[in-house]
Amino acid sequence: MWQGLQSITDYKKKTSPVADHDVLLPDKLNNFFARFEDNTVPPTRPATKTCRLSFTAANVRKTFKCVNPRKAAGPDGIPGRVLRACADQLAGVFTDIFNQSLSQAAVPTCFKRATIVPVPKKAKVTELNDYRPVALTSVIMKCFERLVKDHITSILPDTLDPLQFAYRPNRSTDDAIAITLHTALTHLDKRNTYVRMLFIDYSSAFNTIVPSKLVIKLETLGLDPALCNWVLDFLTGRPQVVRVGNNISTPLILNTGAPQGCVLSPLLYSLFTHDCVAKHASNSIIKFADDTTVVGLITNNDETAYREEVRALGVWCQENNLSLNVNKTKEMIVDFRKQEREHPPIHIEGTVVEKVESFKFLGVHITDKLNWSTHTDSVVKKAQQRLFNLRRLKKFGLSPKSLTNFYRCTIESILSGCI
């Protein structure tokens, strides 16, 4: 149904198709996506006792029955609808495979394979960085990961990284936005104060995770060393190819990063960055996945703590192999004092960070006046465009139920966002 609606309304602008006549493009993209690979021998860890984690056939059966049958199959060619339809018959076999994998701290190579399908980020592609790598991985492995993910989240303390709002129950972008604005506005109520907000941009954050450093952090969080070894094996020795049309690249073996198409990757990234916290009480580092914002509360023009925080963040990034994209990192200064003052710029890696008057923060336009006019104008404009599509659908004679669904999904959703 949605394909028909999009065809009638031209609802989503089509990006330029990936050119499949260039037979060298898959290899170029594969090398580009793997540019953070250090080409060293994959790390090994001493053997530990057998992993205490194991799953029952009931756990596996339930996970198989929750598979979305419309999701694309991975490199193994096994579609999700097969796992869902045959969950009762397959649960026992894969329960043994999953438990054997955990006990040996080894993930079968066929489960780790990934096929990258490049998707253009914008209408006109001019460079390799204009492609977004969408990874197709084994549906079976995704089910396995989901079981492991549920176990890890169940043993993590509730107080872990309170300012990370992604991949946590009962948290969302709305909470991150509310905390950020509340922190700023509360401080601005005091005399002779202002706020500096630094919106950090990382280059391919997930692809830069160093597995050996990650598992050390996982152990400090209380995870079973044997399970940490399993995670290390899961993230290393991963065969990857890029497919463009009928052309497929030469496989590369990756030992760095977490594949973005995997269920475990978002959680592992949040745990990898859980120790990226503010060192000064006057600062906050608010995170939603890899969107990181440093909020500096300045009093009496003393920016010492804020500037030290930015320097410390740069050091932390270097120690943890995260690459700061200074060109896309922006800073916004909120100063309500009557007397205008010149604010010295922030430097990162010797480059001046650009100051902006407004910034789209987690989908919401915020300005240095902290008013909602820019965001409201943007939402109204977007809603009006989609309202035009709704009128077109009505002319085509769609049923009231279909029109209501279209309205709720495309118009009401943006009007009610962040409320």
TrEMBL record:
Domain of life: Eukaryota
Leader sequence segment: none
GO MF term list: 2-oxoglutarate-dependent dioxygenase activity; methyltransferase activity
CDD domains for this protein: RT_nLTR_like (cd01650)
Domain annotation Reverse transcriptase: ranges: 100-366
SUPFAM superfamilies from the UniProt entry: DNA/RNA polymerases (SSF56672)
PANTHER family (UniProt xref): ENDO_EXONUCLEASE_PHOSPHATASE DOMAIN-CONTAINING PROTEIN, REVERSE TRANSCRIPTASE DOMAIN-CONTAINING PROTEIN
Name of this protein: Reverse transcriptase domain-containing protein
Origin organism lineage: Eukaryota, Metazoa, Chordata, Craniata, Vertebrata
